[in-house]
Design a protein that fits this description.
The chain is an alpha/beta fold and about 280 residues long. It has eleven helices and nine strands. α7 (about 210-220) packs across α11 (about 265-280). The longest helix is centred in the middle third of the chain and has 15 residues, at about 120-135. Mean pLDDT is about 90; it is low at about 1-15.
Length: about 280
């Protein structure tokens, strides 16, 4: 597990800064960096935003194959190294991605995302990308490296152990595809976890959501008690909206004995619409 600002990639054929314990750094081996770039499949007209460029394992090969690339990196040592090596079509921003104003970085035309996400803040970063997609509609896709457990949660289907808030909110707005599995030996030094590369292709919502704020709030509330029947899992959310849980479930044509983790996107949207109507 890495720190919030960890980066794990090195750059082939060039000097790589030593790992720094405070960032929990693990550098991606060149052969694996090449595999990740091939999975990303960059095109000559593409414009990329890279999250966590590190020493440039992905930045350098991507830059040679795309029109523009903006790389965001928090570690000043990595930034100093990378600035000496990148071509003119690369802009480097020294910042923590979670505190960056994306509006100032996203071009007016479509942009693709690539990144090796810090493991312990990968979910907030993914939610930030979803928010950017909803607000600006300029994100085409995101190919990101994650801890394998997080990748499993993103792809999880209803009725499975991993299905939850992250699965639902991402699958509402993006098609998810597993692209590559990476063992600990893909990095130096090897981390204690396995990794995976997944791609998210952003699109319009998969189902009609009347009020997305109500939808998101409902999902987060009910999944705090995911193993309970809906009658109990929805109790707090229903009470906050002065709505009887049994009535809401009946109006949404959903069996109150079911559990949150069994609901499909369409069913969740239908239930959220009932609550949204009650608050108008």
């Amino acid at each position: 597990m890495r720190s919030a600002r960890a980066q794990r990639e090195g750059a082939p054929g060039d000097e790589v800064p030593r790992t720094r314990k405070k960032y929990g750094q693990h550098f991606l081996e060149p052969v694996w960096a090449n595999k990740v770039v091939e999975v990303i499949a960059p095109q000559p007209d593409d414009r990329f935003l890279e999250i966590g460029s590190g020493a440039g394992a992905l930045t350098i090969p991507l830059a040679s194959r795309v029109a523009e690339l903006t790389a965001i990196e928090v570690d000043p040592q990595m930034v100093a190294t990378l600035r000496r090596r990148v071509p003119p079509n690369v802009r480097i921003v020294q910042a923590d991605f979670l505190y960056v104003d994306l509006r100032s970085l996203l071009p007016p035309m479509g942009v693709r995302i690539a990144g090796n996400l810090p493991y312990n803040v990968s979910s907030p970063i993914l939610f930030a990308l979803l928010d950017a997609h909803k607000r600006h509609a300029g994100l085409i896709d995101a190919t990101v490296m994650l801890q394998r457990e997080v990748a499993d949660r993103i792809q999880a289907r209803p009725g499975t152990r991993d299905y939850g808030v992250l699965s639902i909110l991402i699958q509402l707005h993006a098609d998810v595809r597993h692209r590559l599995s990476l063992p600990p030996g893909a990095f130096r030094p090897p981390p204690k976890v396995h990794s995976a590369v997944v791609s998210l292709r952003f699109r319009a919502p998969a189902v009609d959501v009347v009020d997305e704020a109500v939808f998101e709030s409902m999902v987060k509330s009910m999944f705090t008690q995911r193993r309970k029947m809906l009658t109990n899992a929805l109790a707090s959310f229903s009470a906050a909206r002065y709505r009887d849980t049994a009535d809401a479930l009946r109006d949404a044509s959903i069996d109150p004995r079911r559990r949150p983790e069994t609901l499909q996107l369409e069913e969740l949207a239908r239930l959220a619409a009932v609550f949204a109507a009650a608050t108008r």
